[in-house]
Amino acid sequence: MDPLISIPREALAELLRAAGSNLTPEEYVASLPATRLYERYASRAKAAAISKYVLVVVAVIAVLFLPGAWSMFGFSIEDIIVTGGLVAVTFFEYRVHRYFREHNPLAPSLGFRNQSCFAAGILIYGLYHAALLTQVSPQVQTMIETNNLIDPETLGLLQNLSPVFYLVIGVVGGVSQFGLAWYYRTAQVRG
User: Fold this and answer.
1) 91/78 Cα distance (integer angstroms)
2) Range of the domain at 157
3) Residue 162 domain-assigned (yes or no)
4) Count of domains forming the chain
5) What is d(CA 38, CA 189) in angstroms, rounded to the nearest whole number?
6) Which residues are CB-neighbours of 16 under 8 A, at least 6 positions away?
């Protein structure tokens, strides 16, 4: 849906006269404030394209590794929620990209909502895990010791640093996604 439909100058002049307007075609086109606002959509479409491709790679990896994670660490409802949320955000990001490409006026608000929800999810996930004390299950602890994967001192250090890691993931990820949400929102046509 292109907001700028070509029309011959004389046909526009005739339409303006039939409508009782004294404006010339040039004056009429200059009086349309919204036509320039759609120029922002091209850069937002590029950002949405990059975002959707990154999201689809991460979503595919999450879906493919989900059964492996269950076999190693056990079933977790959290894994289902995170993977489902990631797939949903990816689906809507594809729609956001298409809307920006088609100059659909719903694109900025859909992009803002999608990325704001994603930012909130990342922030909640990071803060939740930062608040929890990370404990390695006895099954994983046995696997680590049996295969000599990590020495106990390093494992202790990793457990102590995990809240900082999750806090950084939550804050940096949430703020960056919210920045993308506002970038989408600035293309909003106000009238």
Assistant:
1) 20
2) 38-185
3) yes
4) 1
5) 8
6) 23, 24, 25, 28
